[in-house]
Amino acid sequence: MTLSVNPTSVGEADGATAVVVTATLHAAARGSATAVTVAVGDTGDSATEGTDYATVSNFTVTIGANATSGTGTFTLTPTQDLLVEGDETISVKGTATGLTVTGASLTLEDEETASTGVTLSVNPTSVGEADGATAVVVTAALHGGARGEATAVTVAVGDGGTVRRRGRTTPRCRTSR
């Protein structure tokens, strides 16, 4: 017996989505009904039940007497987050008395993309030699991508020499992510 799912992928932002599971017998139809217990999600999946999507209770797909397939439906409710985690998989497995069941998988599509760069700005933009100790605020702004996850930016001041601007010598700044 084989399980298949439709649709085969759901986006994080799609909200609650009905997923149809079809159980298909490989051999001739049986003279009596066949019950398949379907479980959604497994500990080895890259998507985590309760974190990446709402818990789905086990359910039964019944293949009627003299039929070769049957369907059942569950609702997949993805968690819309702002994390860049890539597409993840969710297992759809089945068990049926006396039969080997080949499961299916569903892809949970991540809709966030990684940031493409960082721009640094400083305030104040200049400090005179006679100003003494001056606090300088460095602001880092991400370009593109998701902004819901924390991104560490390391700023090194005075590392890498000096730059000549308008007759003044200014320390260079380097960044790393």
Structure characterization notes:
The chain has strands at about 1-5, 10, 15-25, 35-40, 60-65, 70-75, 90-95, 105-110, 115-125, 135-145, 155-165, 170-175. It is mainly beta and about 180 residues long. It has a five-stranded mixed β-sheet, with no helix packed on it. Strands 1-3-6 form a three-stranded antiparallel β-sheet, with no helix packed on it. It is rod-shaped and about 95 Å long. The chain starts with a strand and ends with a strand. The model has no long low-confidence stretch (mean pLDDT about 85).
Radius of gyration: 28 Å
Number of helices: 0
SSE arrangement, N to C: EEEEEEEEEEEE
Proportion of strand residues: over 45%
Number of strands: 12
Percent range of helical residues:
under 10%
Structural class: mainly beta
Low-confidence stretches: none
Q: If you average the pLDDT, what whole number results?
A: 83
Kindly report the spatial arrangement of strands forming the biggest sheet.
Answer: 2-8-7-4-5
Largest sheet: 5 strands, mixed
General form:
rod-shaped
